[in-house]
Amino acid sequence: MPDAITIDDLIAKLGLQPHPEGGYYAETFRSFETCNPGNRYLGVRSTGTAIYYLLTPDTFSGMHILTSDEIFHHYLGDAVEQLQLFEDGTHKHVEIGTDLLAGQTPQMVVPKNVWQGGRLKPGGKFALLGCTVAPGFDFSDFSMGTRTALTAKWPTASDMIAALTRD
Q: Average of pLDDT values for 116-140?
């Protein structure tokens, strides 16, 4: 990775736009093949989608939930700390990055119906990730969480929930 690359370079070169959850994105793939995976969706979905996703020091991925599985891929930059909240009331913190010896992983799967949010690790300049969703992403399958509701169910994760919500 060239040291001279900037956030503005990444946004321009990759055609990134602001994402409703925070950060910047550009869809890079949407399968023309479709499926109807049952009653959790209204209508058909693409079998898969992919995006570039950029986090910067002044952005974060707000706590949200999808009805499809999502795979994060770390491409460039600094590590991301991600919070995952499970239906049974448990949670986990993971780091998406390239320092395998420090416990980071360059690929992370978030199962469907798991609340998730993330941010750069402190001191990070940017992180360029890829996100692959199957069945494919559709905004109707996406919901943002609220600090009050998430903290009520996962009180032991309240500090990170507060950092990853806007209310």
A: 96
Could you tell me if residue 11 is inside a domain? yes
The one-letter amino acid code at 31 reads S
Q: Domain tally for the chain? A: 1
DSSP label of 109 = E
pLDDT digits (tens, 9 = 90+) for 26-76: 999 999 998 876 666 667 889 999 999 999 999 999 999 999 999 999 999
Asked whether residue 1 is domain-assigned, the answer is no
Nearest to 83 by CA among 107, 100, 62, 104: 62
Got the DSSP string for 7-51? HHHHHHHHT-EE-TTSSEEEEEEE-S-EE---TTSSS-EES-EEE
Indicate which CATH number applies to the domain containing 58. Answer: 2.60.120.10
* Sign of the alpha-carbon dihedral angle for 158, 110, 108, 47: negative
Helix locations, the chain, DSSP H:
7-14, 147-153, 158-163
2 within domain boundaries: no
Average pLDDT rounded to a whole number, residues 122-137: 96
**What is the domain extent for residue 116?**
7-163
The token duo for 44 is: 């058909």
Element (H, E) at 128: strand 127-134
